[in-house]
Hints:
Elements: H1 6-41, H2 45-73, H3 75-95, H4 99-127, H5 130-161, H6 166-169, H7 171-185, H8 199-217, H9 227-249, H10 263-293, H11 298-304, H12 306-315, H13 319-326, H14 328-346, H15 355-382, H16 389-418, H17 427-455
Helix pairs in contact: 1-2, 1-4, 1-5, 1-7, 1-10, 2-3, 2-4, 2-8, 2-16, 3-4, 3-7, 4-5, 5-11, 5-12, 8-9, 8-16, 10-14, 10-15, 10-16, 10-17, 12-15, 13-14, 13-15, 14-15, 14-17, 16-17
Amino acid sequence: xxxxxxRRRRLTLVATCLAQGMILLDVTIVNVAxxxxxxxxxxxxxxxxxxxxxxxxxxxxxxxxxxxxxxxYGRRKVFLAGLAQFTVFxxxxxxxxxxxxxxxxxxxxGVGAALMAPLALSILVDAYPPERRTGAIGIWASAAxxxxxxxxxxxxxxxxxxxxxxxxxxxxxxxxAAAALTFAGVRESRxxxxxxxxxxxxxxxxxxxxxxxxxxxxxNQHAWTSLATLGMLAAAAVVLTAFVAWQRRxxxxxxEPSLFHHRRFVVGVLVFGVAYVALAGTFFxxxxxxxDARGWSALETGIAWIPMNLPFLIVTPFAxxxxxxxxxxxxxxxxxxxxxxxxxxxxxxxxxxxxxxxxAGLMLVGLGYGLMVPAVSSVAMGxxxxxxxxxxxxxxxxxxQLGTALGLAVLGSIxxxxxxxxxxxxTAAFLDGLHAALLTGGLAMVATAPAALVxxxxxxxxxxxx
Length: 466
């Protein structure tokens, strides 16, 4: 296939950066709007978690399917289909009149994101020759970081000027611009030896993940030991066990079983999952804390998140140099320790806690993730055979998104339990829930740091036990 000219490469880069920024912007921008959505649509705490979880759960469950579809039927074609779905259902979210509608449209929006997310990177790899590829991917990764960082600020400004629906309307012009750039610059590509689809595997993974997350979220309505909760957890265990068994026998499994023989890749997936469990809880509880406990506006809340975003954006461009000096394993372990310490600082806030204390905690969280994310990504993907790079990248993305979904479910249920069943209208109960949830998340990061330090280090054994 002939090489693209520089003009089309630049258009491809901008299109993929814009799409990736939209996907991650939508994860964080919604958090700022949660109090407004809760008040205007009269949403329960459990329903509020599902406003976020419906999106990330659909994205996590289907991201591997999106990559497989693109490899088989054309990456540009599937990417555009995902972009169209994401844009259309962003508008539908803005028009929702109650929480069941909003949750359903958020799930459909997440399906669109799942078609885009795994294909942006493979489109870039096709567009750029090896000697220019690293620089292009670095710019693309920075766009993702900017999307995460701008979410709270942009969301706060939009809510201040308009209302909560504006955070979804903003995706419409962005989606149209990304589509125009894709039509103009992105060429079609596919893998002639692409794996066949695994519809049974996809259905089992999605069903098992849904049952697990639903069971955890609904613990704010049913006790952990109730028949409803135990029944859903048992059903999730059965379905996920069936998924694992099927992946071992399927002629074209969604997840290549041999990937689990690579120690550093497995540890990387685990570290990513734990880290994003904690981060999801931090975004959820601290956004509600700023607006409901301290009475800040949405714009003030967005600005309050800046101390977390700045260290992340400052550190990530130098991640390669830091890893070359200290090693990816040390960098990952240090990131988990620092991020966990920052989360624990936030776990002790009260209504009158001085903002400098909160600012310091947020800065530590941002610094920790700025060190951990690029290091884990590089080490984990560096241990995966080139032939499995696509599915490996998809699994890391799925770990991040599933960690976000489970973080809201697990830490949300811990928060509800600590608050005595409900925190609505009761600041003291809410703070009890925040303390328990964020302390759990922070300590989980600290406890995982040794696994990152040891498990991501190069060693004599290249593979994990089968």
